Amino acid sequence: MASRLNDRELKVRKFILDVFGKKINITSTVFKRVVKVCSEERNKEIVDTYGERIYSSMLAEYKFKNYNDYIEKMDLLKTIEYLGTGKTQYASATSIIIKKLFDSESVRVEWIITSLKKASIYELRNVIQFLFTREKNNLHDWLVNLTDDLKGTKNEYQVLSEIFKNIMMTPQFKDISLIIALLERIGHNQTIIDTIIGLLDNNRAHKKVLDAIYYWLYQVTSDPKYLPSDINELFFV
User: Fold this and answer.
1) Cα(208)–Cα(71) distance, rounded to whole angstroms?
2) Which pLDDT score is estimated for 86?
3) In a 10 Å sphere around its CB, with 0-12 CB exposed, 13-18 middle and 19+ buried, how is residue 99 labelled?
4) Nearest 5°: CA angle at 190, between 127 and 173?
5) What is the spatial distance between Cα 99 and Cα 77, in angstroms, rounded to a whole number?
6) What is the pLDDT of residue 234?
7) Strand partners for 88
8) In degrees, to the nearest 5, what angle opens at C-alpha 190 toward C-alphas 187 and 191?
9) Residue 21's Cα: distance from chain center in Å?
10) What is the mean pLDDT of each run of 10 residues along the chain (237 residues)?
């Protein structure tokens, strides 16, 4: 490929190789240059060769200075297109970017959570999955913080839905007090009620969690089928 590249393209290729090979100190200026290079459609042949691995290498090395620096860099990725595709660079590599943010020693989890108020559904889904897999010891606090931060926003009920999708597939999750608090927030929101009902047939949740959810469903629907079978048979047969 190198023999067909002009001088400008050779410089771009060397820069990307230096980033990818971690041969360059990833400063704020370098970070912004990577975003610029990945935004220009004329660099497509060079950039596409490495794709989202460029972001992986960059985020593995970049040291975020503080929350404002974090927001500034994420805003760049979330607003600037990837090679003129119409998709932002963040949208083009959401999973790997979020993974590297959780891996980074310079990123605080609260930064990731606080910045979710205007996040896309796909971003929310990925962050919540990572909270369940990577932040097990602090999961209660992180989920409370997340739902508190998003209360009253357009993403509040979407977040609750995604949380319950993960709860229903995580047999180790046994935090009944959190379950009850989250269910109280849902109230009678029919969309989430339907989502939770839809998860019942194919779930891996702990029995105590299921009992709490079934009892809540009985309370909001008045349908005795959601009561435990022994109680159901005693009172409704």
Assistant:
1) 39
2) 95
3) middle
4) 40
5) 15
6) 41
7) 81
8) 115
9) 27
10) 77 95 95 98 94 95 98 97 96 95 96 90 93 92 93 90 95 94 91 94 93 94 83 46
Q: Which of 181, 236, 220 is nearest to 228 (CA)?
A: 236
Global pTM value: 0.86
pLDDT tens digits, 111-133: 999 999 888 888 999 999 999 99
Token digits of residue 50? 């490495």
User: Residue with structure tokens 């949740």?
Assistant: 205
Residues in the chain: 237
Q: Mapped to the 3 state alphabet, what secondary structure does the chain carry?
A: CHHHCCHHHHHHHHHHHHHHCCCCCCCHHHHHHHHHHCCCHHHHHHHHHHCCHHHHHHHHHCCCCCHHHHHHHHHHHHHCECCCCCCEHHHHCHHHHHHHHHHCCCCCHHHHHHHHHHCCHHHHHHHHHHHHHHCHHHHHHHHHHHHHHHCCCCCHHHHHHHHHHHHCCCCCCCCHHHHHHHHHHHCCCHHHHHHHHHHCCCCCCCHHHHHHHHHHHHHHHCCHHHCCHHHHHHHHC
Residue 117, pLDDT score? 85
173 near 206, Cβ under 8 Å? yes
